[in-house]
Amino acid sequence: MPWILLAGAIALEVFATTMLKLSAGFSRLLPSIGVVAGYLGAFVLLAFVLKTLPVGTIYALWAGLGTALVAVVGVLAFAEPLTAPKVGGIVLIIGGVVMLNLSGAH
């Protein structure tokens, strides 16, 4: 169950960050509400996950996968360029998360 909550927290973080872009500096009401609701929900779910799983691994997964997914959303939804350094960064983030999990950090 904690892993499902973590997936939800990551999804809400990606949603909230996307809404942050769409809010245009909090000048648009509905995306601004989405920012607050998304981050609030993400942190609530993250708090529940941290009751049972180790903080180092969980935070690395939450931040790393969230960052990689936001970069993908930027490319797909906002037509941001997909450059070699961006791809390399995403690969390094995902590789780091995998290494943390394989190293027995959990």
Give the amount of beta strand, in percent.
under 5%
The ordered string of helix (H) and strand (E) elements is: HHHH
Distance between the termini: 16 Å
How many separate domains make up the residues?
1
Helix content: over 70%
- Roughly how many Å is the radius of gyration? 15 Å
The largest β sheet comes out as:
none
Work out the helix count: 4
Total number of beta strands: 0
- Average pLDDT score: 92
Shape: flat
| Structural class by sheet pairing and helices | mainly alpha
**Residue ranges: pLDDT <50 for 5 or more in a row?**
none
Fold blueprint:
Elements: H1 2-22, H2 29-49, H3 55-78, H4 84-102
Protein described:
With 106 residues, the chain is an all-alpha fold. The chain has one domain (2-102). Helices cover 80% and strands 0% of the residues. The chain has four helices and no strands. It has helices at 2-22, 29-49, 55-78, 84-102. Helix 1 (2-22) packs antiparallel against helix 2. The protein is flat, with a radius of gyration of 15 Å. It starts with a helix and ends with a helix.
